[in-house]
Specification:
- The chain is an alpha/beta fold and 284 residues long.
- It has two domains: 4-61, Helicase, Ruva Protein, domain 3 (Orthogonal Bundle); 104-279, 3-Layer(aba) Sandwich (Rossmann fold).
- Helices cover 50% and strands 15% of the residues.
- Strands 3-2-1-4-5-7-6 form a seven-stranded mixed beta sheet, sandwiched between helices.
- Strand 6 and strand 7 (273-279) form a beta hairpin.
- It is globular.
- The N and C termini lie far apart (55 Å).
Length: 284
Amino acid sequence: MTTEAEREAVVTAVTTAIKQSKKYGDTSEATIRQLAEEAARQHKKPKAAIKAVRARLHSIMAPYLGDPDYAALARQLSDAFAANDQARINQLCLASLDAHLSTRERLPIMTEFYQQIFAVTGQPSAILDIACALNPLALRWMFPNVGNQLSVVSNQVKFYAYDIHEPRIQFINHYFQLEGLAPLARVQDVAMQFPHEQADVALFLKEMPRFTRNYGDLGRPLLQSLNVRWLVLSYPSISTHGGRNLTSRYRDFMHQLIAGLDWPLTELLFEGEIVFIIDKLVRK
């Protein structure tokens, strides 16, 4: 039988090894430790536990979706803002979005995407972006006035963003501060700690399938816990490989996810993406 001390030694060894690794060292230590604790209950040897944690992180982090050179982009954005070169700022934001598959696929429809969503929800003054990846760099397409330097817009927007990739969050906060926003992006594993901040809209874009695969039935409690009026969830409508239509599959999945809840649902269908907007307002 493995003692508590032996299990803790495995957890420490696994956490240290993963944090020192090149591929996953920038992941939230809280997430790594949680996965290490789960692995240590199944594996007595650190080597086997490390392998198990790496496999989980590959699924959770999805490094194959892509990342830019955050340090280089941060410097380039600083230079563009210093020169007040709005066209260059927009270009760099688009380059950031293009570096990650999820937001890259949305680029052709991005302006229409947010216009139609906010036509339903109203223009939010506070947003939660759950498992955000690089989506906060779409700020100028969510709030076009920011790009026109109407600072009253940026000063009023609270944009909370949550991700477990540390350099990504550092980069997003750097960008927020350049735009005049508070640096409200956070290294936070939403599966371990549900966001508690209050906002008008919560975005959970293309992430629920992977979240469900990694955390089972936790998606519904997460949505119920969010302190927002509107939930905006999206799913790919076409598979990445093979071009298979996924609209019916994710429409059924979405209705099952919120079955029994008094949440009116609005559906928007874009090229490559299906969006569900949920009104969480409690009715007397």
